[in-house]
Write a structure and sequence with these properties.
Distance between the termini: 23 Å
Structural class: alpha/beta
Strand content: 15-25%
Number of helices: 35
Shape: globular
Largest sheet: 7 strands, parallel
Radius of gyration: 31 Å
Length: 1032
């Protein structure tokens, strides 16, 4: 593993010279050594001396020049590369010294890459300090062999001085931002190098975790645990204190860290290790002998034999089937003779990069090249290192199979890439939007729209609501957008739109479907349907029903679809959550079938789609006709409206400061949040939601609250033990790799999958074989599948893996569903309460007060979880009176501006933010927007997020201006009066809209629209549905 830490002081460098290296200088000349291009430039080579080392850390060069002598100067960074425990055991107990040399080679190769790609200084450009790549580092390597508990633990410190030589020849301080940012990339590169060298020594390896980590096969788990005293102490302390979170374990690690124990006699220490291993029957000699025999039994072969073996191994191990190996339609992999001339490792590198592109492309339209390389390495294909991966990426960039991003760096270095497919998808979104411009007749006349909308609404609509509604019913453009901040009253506006549209069609709401709501998830569909009073369905089911028109625009089926959607208004709720591919298909279907209106409604600052793209923001940047709803009608008081406004503008740090005393800082912040909720009176608990940024915090809060409620007697004394299943967050491509499968997981086959010979249903993963095959059971018989046979080009989710988790439930428990049961009205993410546990089963009550008894063994009893706390990702679309939100400064990706914005805009009255470190959290959020990528934005063709001053120039001549829909000044006291200066398709009227033209009256229960007849989708196959945020 790799860890990175700041060197606190040059004076503390003596610790690197401790005599704890068993293989002394007589046996290994590399116990310490200078390395790096910067060191060579300074004439530093060979063994590291303490005095010279301290001077370098203090910024003093050998010639006496002092660099970067500022207050609070940082001496440097310590990157520690630790061998897998099994490698340490084989090196120090079995005595395989080859492993130590292999480890040093792997570290040097990794540091060479780090120096070439991540060494940077900063240069003043127009008053800004910008990073400049330098390609040189000054660092020293120290090889040590024990842990703090004196267990065998081979590790190498690469201590990097705060120095680098700029292109102009001047020495200055190192800018280490790229080193910190890419620490996981560096870890994957190191593990790939070391794994390759271990395999070349004749050992077999097994994958163990993230970032390419592995162990040597054959070193038993009990041996590893025997020499993991430090880990045992930490886990024991955590169990004693009841700590379950990763951050809690980190705190224990720091608080229980004792100085290294005395070495004593090194020969005695090594003998103690050998004797200790012998107590479990291990000495490693047979394992080492087998490894040596494995690499010596086959001498070098001739060139023809090697060529034959290369092709055979590439076909056998990398593809499994000749048909797949020679697949003709994969632009990411060479074909035919070009493929046959490659070595096995080159072939595997091609497959690794191809898979990495598909893994990343499912979630993002563009990605950093370093992340692409890491993703390829983490697939752990034999022999593939960063050298092979970068060579292949460069080849794809040269061929145009990958498209380089536009560099925004002063040194011109390209860091991002995308695919031609992603660019075509985004260009199609813009093209379809333009095709619909001016292609429909207004539902009602523009001059009449505001009055008709106001008359249809049961509350007073403000200017923004009227403008948005008027645009939907009056614009001549087929595709329009409503950009509304959270709490702007979009649902109220849509109720009026539905009433006006139905009245214009002269039909009752229970007849026909001239207004159809679309949403991402089943629960959102139900909420939308109840909120606007119109039939609604998931986007996925709508696309499935109509996707045939994308391929054929003729015949009876096509004509029937046109007739069915004639005069239909499609209202897409929470459009920021719709992927680029789905948006493109929606637009194309709307144009092909002549849909009356496709209105995209949402907030581009809220949660983005799970899959690639930010289409809602893209269409706004590309000039869609748009209405803006900027008045916040939700937040009350003096503080929350200000906090919400700041969060919406991306000023999250300032928003946190405005919260003032409502921010609670506590190192045990997760427990503190749970305790705060438990201290509330029962009626206040009902009004107060708990939000957590990630799965780990949510689970810990849920467990602590369950314990508290049980202790106070709120929950029933008797409990029911359940095994529930949580989705494993894997892409379609990742499911093709057996390393992501393990015994005990549950496989959900949502559609028949002919490549695997599996029908729809649930299967237990019984065994993962060494050859990559998976053994499954459906309870009646066993199946053996090869996940590599799954098509790499599938565009829909057909399979899903879930992992088991044990929980206990009690009477009175609040739960949420993690899957859909349409027949019984149980929606994924919807809440319910357990009101009884008995011999007949578990009786639950839904939020609509309906009761249902689930018999023991019912599948839905494995598709639930505790729901005292919810993920912030689930909060979108929810409105609560009060909330307690938990955010952690150490959550690098989850503590971002979008999640913060979603959280603070859910609350009407009061928000308490509970954090571990306020200042660190602010810094983390401010540098993490949480935005999705755009292919067109990455290549510099459009500025989606509006950060560039040249945004207008990018769009000039290509797209046209963004059209803001502005109805002008609306006389709310006389809505029948004509409105000057406004038309739906030329919205730049003479009179600008004014603020504060109306306030929405607080809706009461009598304002709920009557329930519409549901759409009959029973003829459709059940659709897979991912749970937003629960996989994080």
């Amino acid at each position: 593993m790799l860890s990175i830490a700041a060197v606190r002081s040059a004076g503390g460098a003596a610790g690197y010279f401790a005599k704890d290296n068993y293989y002394t200088l007589e046996e290994s000349s590399e116990a310490s050594s200078w390395a790096g291009e910067g060191s060579a430039d300074l004439g530093l080579a060979g063994d590291v001396g303490k005095e010279g080392f301290e001077k370098i850390l203090n910024g003093e060069l050998p010639d006496g020049e002092k660099v970067g002598q500022v207050e609070n100067r940082r001496p440097g960074l310590d990157m520690t590369f630790s061998m897998p425990k099994s490698a340490s055991v084989m090196a120090y107990i079995a005595g395989d010294k080859r492993i130590l040399a292999a480890h040093m080679e792997a570290v040097k190769a990794t540091m060479s890459w780090v120096e070439k790609n991540l060494a940077e200084g900063r240069k003043d450009i127009d008053g800004r300090k910008v990073p400049i790549r330098t390609g040189n580092l000054v660092y020293a390597l120290f090889q040590h062999d024990t842990s703090r508990a004196l267990d065998p633990q081979g590790h190498i410190h690469a201590v990097i001085a705060n120095l680098t030589k700029m292109p102009n020849g001047k020495w200055q301080a190192l800018h280490n931002g790229a080193l910190w940012k890419n620490n996981s990339v560096i870890g994957s590169i190191y593990h790939a190098f070391f794994r390759d060298r271990i395999e070349k020594l004749g050992y077999e390896v097994t994958s163990t975790g993230k970032h390419g980590t592995f162990e040597i096969a054959g070193v038993a788990k009990e041996v590893l645990e025997l020499f993991s005293q430090r880990r045992t102490v930490i886990l024991g302390k955590a169990l004693e204190l009841g700590i379950r979170t990763a951050e809690g374990l980190r705190e224990i690690t720091k608080n229980t860290r004792d100085p290294k124990l005395s070495m004593g006699d090194r020969e005695v220490l090594r003998q103690e290790w050998i004797d200790k291993a012998a107590t479990v029957g291990f000495d490693g000699k047979d394992l080492m002998a087998a490894a040596i025999e494995r690499i010596t039994r086959n001498p070098d072969r001739g060139i023809m034999a090697r060529g034959y073996e290369a092709v055979s191994e590439a076909i056998r191990s990398a593809r499994g089937m000749v048909a797949n190996f020679l697949r003709p339609n994969d632009p990411l992999v060479d074909r035919g003779l070009a493929r046959l001339t490659q070595s096995p490792v080159e072939a595997r590198a091609q497959l690794a990069v191809a898979s990495a592109v598909r893994i990343l492309s499912q979630r993002e339209a563009a990605w950093e090249l370093n992340v692409l390389a890491k993703t390829a390495l983490d697939l752990r294909l034999k022999g593939v290192t960063i050298t092979h991966v970068e060579s292949r990426i460069g080849n794809l960039l040269e061929k145009g199979t990958l498209i380089p991003g536009k560099s925004h760096r002063h040194d011109g270095i390209v860091t991002m890439a995308t695919t031609p497919e992603a660019i075509r998808t985004e260009e199609a979104i813009i093209s379809e939007m333009e095709k619909g411009r001016g292609m429909v007749s207004p539902i009602i006349d523009a001059a009449d729209a505001p009055a008709r909308l106001q008359a249809a609404s049961k509350v007073t609509l403000n200017a923004g609501q009227l403008a948005a509604g008027a645009m939907i019913v009056s614009s001549r453009d087929r595709i329009v957008a409503v950009q509304g901040i959270a709490g702007a009253g979009k649902s109220t506006m849509l109720q009026a739109v539905v009433e006006v549209a139905h009245a214009a069609a002269n039909i009752a709401k229970t007849e026909g479907h001239n207004v159809l709501g679309l949403a991402f998830q089943t629960k959102m569909v139900r909420d939308l349907q109840e909120g606007i009073g119109a039939p609604s369905q998931t986007i996925a089911s709508f696309l499935l029903r109509h996707q045939h028109v994308l391929h054929r625009q003729e015949g009876p089926r096509y004509e029937a679809a046109r007739e069915a959607l004639k005069n239909t208004v499609l209202l897409v709720d929470e459009s920021s959550m719709v992927s680029s591919e789905q948006t493109m298909k929606l637009e194309r279907i709307a144009n092909l079938l002549g849909v009356e209106k496709l209105a995209l409604i949402g907030d581009r600052q809220q949660i983005s789609s799970i899959d690639a793209g930010k289409a809602f923001a893209l269409v706004q940047a590309a000039g869609v006709t748009i209405a803006r709803m900027d008045e916040n009608l939700r937040q009350q008081g003096d503080i929350l409206p200000v906090v919400a406004a700041l969060a919406d503008r991306g000023q999250s740090g300032e928003a946190i400061r405005v919260l003032g005393e409502n921010v609670i800082e506590d190192k045990d912040h997760i427990e503190r949040a749970a305790d705060m909720w438990l201290e509330l009176a029962p009626e206040e608990r009902e009004r107060t939601a708990l939000f957590a940024s990630g799965r780990e915090a949510r689970e810990h809060i849920n467990m602590r609250i369950q314990e508290g409620l049980t202790a106070e007697g709120t929950l029933g004394k008797d409990s029911l033990a359940l095994t529930i299943f949580e989705r494993v967050n894997l892409t379609r491509e990742e499911l093709r790799y057996s390393q992501n499968w393990r015994a005990g997981l549950k496989l959900d086959v949502m559609f028949r999958t002919d490549e695997l010979g599996l029908g729809k249903g649930l299967y237990d993963v019984v065994k993962v074989q060494k050859n990559g095959k998976i053994e499954l059971s459906d309870g009646k018989r066993r199946f053996r599948i090869d996940p590599q046979k799954l098509s790499p080009h599938a565009s829909e989710d057909r399979l899903g893996l879930s992992e088991p988790k044990s929980i206990a439930i009690h009477e009175g428990e609040t739960i949420r569903w993690t899957a859909n049961d349409k027949a019984r009205g149980l929606d994924n993410s919807a809440l319910a309460k357990i009101i009884g546990i008995g011999a007949a089963g578990v009786t639950i009550e839904t939020t609509s007060r309906e009761q249902l008894t689930l018999p023991h063994g019912d599948p839905m009893l494995s598709r639930l979880d505790l729901a005292y706390a919810l993920n912030m990702h689930m909060a979108q679309g929810i409105t609560v009176d009060k909330a307690i939100a938990v955010m952690s400064s150490f959550e690098r990706f989850l503590s971002n501006q979008r999640l913060f914005n979603v959280t603070v805009t859910r609350v009407r009255e009061a928000l308490m933010l509970v954090v571990d470190d306020k200042d660190r959290l602010i810094a983390q959020i401010e540098r993490t927007p949480g935005n999705k990528t755009s292919a067109l934005e990455t290549t510099g063709k459009i500025d989606v997020d509006g950060r560039s001053e040249q945004s207008a120039e990018m769009l000039a001549g290509m797209l046209g201006e963004t059209v803001d829909f502005d109805p002008g000044e609306i006389p709310l006291d006389d809505l029948a009066a004509p409105i000057e200066g406004w038309s739906p398709d030329n919205p730049k009227g003479d009179k600008p809209a004014t603020e504060g033209q109306g306030k929405e009256a607080k809706p009461g229960s009598d304002l709920r629209a009557p329930d519409p007849d549901p759409i009959d989708l029973d003829s459709l196959p059940p659709l897979p549905e991912r749970t937003l945020g629960l996989d994080l």
